[in-house]
Amino acid sequence: MDKHGLASFLRSRRERLQPEDVGLPAGTRRRTPGLRREEVAVLAHISTEYYVRLEQGRAPRPSAEVLVGIAGALLLTDEESDHLHMLAGTAPLRTALHRRDVRPSIVALLDRMPQTAGFVMSAIFEVLAWNDLAAALMEDFAELGPDERNLARRAFLGDGASAALYGISDGAEFRHHVVARLRLASTRYPSDPAVVGLVEDLRAGSEQFARLWDQHDVAAAPTLRKSLQHPVVGKITVDCDSLELAERDQHLVLYSAPAGSADAEALALLQILGSDAVGLSETT
């Protein structure tokens, strides 16, 4: 049980709610944001004293039934509810280290998808495998070290926000998504040095990351389309699909464009140019 993490998460979820969100009258002006602790306790059908102790990190492990009641009272999403259970120690943790090895069939699949840029990310946003079009669209990951292939580091510690993220149009949304997914990863792999070290580096090196981290969000809306600014073909808008590879806690990310569109033609050109496409811009 992560008493400190559980306490912080409960406070953050309580403070984001207003009385009217849960069917309570607004009443008089409140000195602090969100619901009162006693209101959450009543909605969760537990004693106020016990809920207060949970938020203070002093309570014993709550039962699964109590957690279900709290999740309902705080209007938690499914992902937030799972996170709550993991913090309380009532959900099984994954292996101590997150997986970096990509299934060979997935690697082979990447090379069999025409005009689709694809890559595989680990639970902490490391690019583990990619196809030629992904290298042409983004950059040749083979020439980068492990830290440089980590998109979380690029998002918050890269030189120049737009350049670090390949000129994507949804940089703010992506950063929020990164923080939410890393919050889940830190709960699943609390003793993994790579996970712990990444979060520590980002908190120390980015005020924006530290601020988002303290919001305790564990879910972010998926991005279905995004635009990238490429140095050779210019702006290119792609459909973005992320497929979960659950058994290894990885994601297969696919960028494609509708057949016959100008964006599809740009992808086709990049397919021909290959990873040299980025280098061409430096010599023209």
List keywords for this structure.
12% strand; 5-stranded antiparallel beta sheet; 284 residues
**Main beta sheet, described?**
5 strands, antiparallel
Largest sheet, spatial ordering of strands: 2-1-5-4-3
Taken as a percent bin, the fraction of beta residues is 5-15%
Number of strands: 5
Overall 3D geometry? Answer: elongated
Distance between the termini: 57 Å
Helical amount:
40-55%
Residue-averaged pLDDT: 86
Radius of gyration: 22 Å
Please provide a written account of the structure.
This protein is an alpha+beta fold and about 280 residues long. The protein has 14 helices and five strands. The chain has helices at about 5-15, 35-45, 50-55, 65-75, 80-90, 105-110, 130-135, 150-155, 160-165, 170-190, 195-205, 205-215, 260-275, 275-280, and strands at about 115-120, 125-130, 225-230, 235-245, 250-255. The protein has a five-stranded antiparallel β-sheet. A hairpin with a 5-residue loop joins strand 1 (about 115-120) and strand 2 (about 125-130). Helix 2 crosses helix 4 and helix 11 packs across helix 12 (about 205-215). The chain is elongated, with a radius of gyration of 22 Å. The chain starts with a helix and ends with a helix.
Topology:
Elements: H1 3-15, H2 37-44, H3 48-55, H4 64-73, H5 78-88, H6 104-110, E1 117-121, E2 127-130, H7 132-137, H8 151-157, H9 161-164, H10 171-188, H11 193-205, H12 207-213, E3 225-230, E4 234-245, E5 250-256, H13 262-273, H14 276-280
Antiparallel strand pairs: 1-2, 1-5, 3-4, 4-5
Helix pairs in contact: 2-3, 2-4, 4-5, 11-12
